[in-house]
Structure formats: structure tokens, C-alpha cells
Specification:
This protein is mainly α. Helix content is about 75%, strand content about 0%. Pfam families: TauE.
Length: about 260
């Protein structure tokens, strides 16, 4: 890996995390296409590299949210209870059932599209009444499903569930730190799972350590800054921006998957 690639990875992690951490969305969602198209990380190594990014970048935002007193309450524990076993299942599915890049793009698009549209709708209709908050068993069940999808896609799972919780009346001040805490822990488990699978499976499925660490270092600084700025940034604007980006990326992946 040359110096330019390393610098590009660091800056990508920094800029993406500044924008995504205030709403509890893992920057890995948007780092993945950068890895594939700009940094040229091979498939399927891109998924564990994304998980490595989450592991390194996560403490930045979490430290700031902890200082703000936002890491209290049961929500993080509920998300972790479902996403941790889910991410292990997702990693196994990713290696043995969805190894091809074409199918991978379709899966990535299917994950990003509803997430992006949901964020856009909530941002454009802020006066829409929220539904009653989900009961705890439902949160754990959804966490299991999103953890599995996150293990396949390399985003940890908590980032997918965050918009659902927001639409059901949970404040963003609770969702953001809980989702990032869940993503951080499940990414550790997911990266370890890929490491174990790499020992007994042929193919490039181990993370690209140097690049993942450099992207994560940028995300560490960017996540701390984004969490620090959260109280001063308009939530509606951030959700709309994230929704537009996620939807656009989903369309690109779906088109590539269907025509590739």
C-alpha cells in the first residue's frame, strides 16, 4: 500500500465519521464504497476491513458521549444482546453463501435503500407523530436480524436499527450512543469471527490491517468531533443528508448488481 492510499483512507474515515457519528450511524456504511472504488480493497476482505474500522473508530464518539452522560440506560444492552450473535451468523453467511461481488452489491443496496428512504422521510416530515416505543423483546429481536445483516455488510448492525427506533419515539440523544456502542462491540466480535474463518477458509477474507487501522484512526478523531458537535447541529439536516447519501449509494449498488 502506498502513502497516498493511506492518507486517502485516513481522510475518508475522518470526514465520514464527523457527519455520521452525531446520529449514531456507523461511518462504515459510507466507507465501504470508498474502499471498493477508491482504495481498491478486494472482495470479500472489504467486510472485515470495515469491521476493523468500526473497532478503531468507535471509542472516539463513545468517549465524548460518555462525557456528555449519554451512555446510561438499558438501550445499549438490548441492542448488544441481539446484534452480537447476529453478527457471527452474518459473517458465516458472508463467507460461505455470498462470496461474489455482484450478489454482494445487491445485498448492500438492499440494506442501504430502506435505511436511506427512512431517514429522508423522517427528515422531511418532522411533524409526523411517532409510534409508541418498541417493547424490549421486539428491540432484541430486531437487533438479531440487523446484526445478521450487519455481519454480512460489515457495519455492525446498530446503525440499521437506529432509524427504526427514532421513528418509534426514542430520542436521538439515546439512540446515537447506544447504536454506536452496539456497533463497536459487534464489530469486535465480527472481526474476530472473520479472523477465525480466514484460518480455515481459502480466499482473501482477512481484513487489510494497515488500511483498516488508518481509516479507523481518521474515524476516531472524526467520531469524537461529530459527537462533540451533536448538541449544536440541526438533527433534521443531518438525517436528510444521511438519507440522501444512503439512497444514492443504494441505487448505484443495485444498478451495478443487476447489470454487472
Amino acid at each position: 500500500m502506498d502513502v497516498g492510499t493511506g492518507v486517502a483512507g485516513f481522510l475518508a474515515g475522518l470526514l465520514i465519521s464527523v457527519v455520521t457519528s452525531p446520529v449514531g450511524v456507523s461511518g462504515a456504511v459510507f466507507l465501504l464504497p470508498v474502499q471498493l472504488s477508491v482504495l481498491h480493497v478486494p472482495n470479500p476482505a472489504v467486510t472485515p476491513t470495515n469491521l476493523l474500522f468500526n473497532v478503531v473508530s468507535g471509542p472516539g464518539a463513545l468517549l465524548r458521549y460518555r462525557r456528555n452522560g449519554q451512555l446510561t440506560g438499558p438501550l445499549a444492552r438490548l441492542l448488544i444482546a441481539g446484534t452480537v450473535p447476529g453478527v457471527i451468523v452474518g459473517a458465516v453467511i458472508r463467507v460461505f453463501a455470498i462470496p461474489g461481488p455482484q450478489v454482494f452489491r445487491l445485498v448492500a443496496g438492499a440494506v442501504l435503500l430502506p435505511l436511506g428512504l427512512w431517514l429522508c422521510v423522517r427528515a422531511l416530515r418532522p411533524g409526523t407523530p411517532d409510534r409508541p416505543p418498541l417493547p424490549r423483546p421486539a428491540i432484541v429481536g430486531l437487533s438479531l436480524v440487523t446484526g445478521t445483516v450487519g455481519g454480512i455488510y460489515g457495519i455492525g448492525g446498530g446503525s440499521i436499527l437506529g432509524p427504526i427506533l427514532a421513528g418509534r419515539g426514542t430520542p436521538m440523544s439515546q439512540i446515537a450512543p447506544a447504536a454506536l456502542a452496539s456497533t463497536f462491540l459487534t464489530s469486535i466480535v465480527g472481526a474476530a469471527t472473520y479472523g477465525v474463518l480466514a484460518l480455515s477458509t481459502s480466499g482473501d477474507i482477512a481484513p487489510h490491517w494497515v488500511l483498516g487501522l488508518l481509516c479507523g484512526a481518521g474515524g476516531l478523531a472524526g467520531g469524537y468531533l461529530g459527537a462533540r458537535l451533536q448538541p449544536y447541529l440541526p438533527e433534521r439536516t443531518l438525517r436528510l443528508l444521511l438519507g440522501v447519501l444512503a439512497t444514492a449509494l443504494a441505487v448505484v449498488y443495485l444498478v451495478q448488481g443487476l447489470t454487472g
